[in-house]
Amino acid sequence: MAAERHYSPPEIPEPTLMETVLHHGLFFGAIFQLLCVLAIILPVSQSRKTDSDGSGTKTWEAVKKPKASAAQLSKKPKKESKKKR
């Protein structure tokens, strides 16, 4: 092995402006996605305190109307109209 080999690293071109913008944009996009996922997973505490009876806030169940009563109300006039015939 008398011949010496010189190993030099390959020449890497300098990144262009577009490549730099793309690199940083992807980096900040990934951080933004992680923050969004963490915002969904971690509960957020409310800063305002409500009354002890809870009259100030309504839950989803309280806002949503029961479907059974609406169906029963729509059936009653139909039965009455059939009886009148």
UniProtKB/TrEMBL annotation:
The keyword Ubl conjugation does not apply. InterPro entries: UPF0239. It comes from the Eukaryota. Residues 75-85 have a biased composition (Basic residues). It is a single-pass membrane protein. Residues 46-85 are annotated as: Disordered. The chain crosses the membrane at residues 20-42. It is found in: Membrane. GO terms for cellular component: membrane. Its main location: membrane. Keywords: Membrane, Transmembrane, Transmembrane helix. Belongs to the UPF0239 family. PANTHER family: MANNOSIDASE, BETA A, LYSOSOMAL-LIKE, MANBAL PROTEIN, PROTEIN MANBAL. This is MANBAL.
